[in-house]
Known about the structure:
By secondary structure, the protein is mostly beta strands. It has a domain at about 100-325. It has helices spanning about 105-110, 180-185, 190-195, 225-235, and strands spanning about 115-120, 125-135, 140-145, 155, 170, 220-225, 265, 275, 280-285, 295-300, 315, 325. The strands form five sheets. It has a three-stranded antiparallel beta sheet. The chain has a three-stranded antiparallel beta sheet with strand order 9-10-11. The chain has a two-stranded parallel sheet with strand order 4-5. Strand 9 (about 280-285) and strand 10 form a beta hairpin. It is globular, with a radius of gyration of 18 Å. It starts with about 110 loop residues before the first helix and ends with a strand.
Amino acid sequence: MVLLLTIALAACGGDSGTSANDDNVSSSSSSSVIPASSGNRPSSSSQKIASSSSVKKESSSSVKTASSSSSAIPASSGNLPSSSSKKEEPSSSEYVPFDHSKTLAEDWRVGENAYKQFTDPRNGRSYYYIKIIGKDYLGDKDSVTIMAENLNIGEMVQGKDDQKDDTKIERYCYNNDTTKCDEYGGLYQWAEMMLLPSRCNTESCSDLIQENHRGICPEGWRLMKDLDFYIAWHAETNEYGIEGVRSAYLFNGYNSSGLSLTGAGLRTAEGGFNGLREGAYWFLPEEFEKKKNTHAYAGFVSSLDDYAPSRNTNDSKKIGLSVRCVKVEQ
């Protein structure tokens, strides 16, 4: 089945997220995703994001800004409790951070206190995560500890531009609006997600891909692989199939797996945006075998049907997709 992929990092006022139970940082066919595209590969958990000629240098600053636009799908916004202890009423023009607990599953579905929270020390952004017990490809019991939100880090660049500054992490925000990054996470081209030189979007860099590729994930975390998603999809608590990995928040799902996928949409290869609230798209840390120079494997879940990601789903490395991170087990 062919589908396209493409989408956006923090909100006006910074990358801070929700807080609670804080961990205190501390295959052969060529179908495509999205109304068109996708890919995948994991990285090692080196203490900091290295700045060698083959790897991008991490930016110490989080980002702000927002603006313009592009294609389809309605957008949405939400609320998040303020960290301030004062009970000041926000002005009508003041942005209220999104409350990511809205996208999570109810305790009775996934277990009481199933969700925990982790703070990324690079920008202070908090993420809910959950340990999901499910089955692997062979039907054997397996588990994955995975973020229940999309990653949101980096400096926002306009959708019309490629993420080509190899000295820092860059992100797209849907419709160039940072509040969408706050709500749905950032959107990243494949090389950016992998934290590899931008040239890897147009040439093969398979020799730089590691078994547990960290990419732009926080230290101690790695990029989500196809097996990770499969285990979550086949969670012991999931009785609804693909609908069970979709959030009930604006994404037409039951979320009985706890994965909490949201319709973050994507940034197209042409620089536009589409699919908000209609599709969840992500690259895998792996180049597409038949087109290693320009394509990578990807995953896609629609709010409109029960389409399940295919192992052959792939797309252009230049589209912008969401990123999920998995905890590295010791």
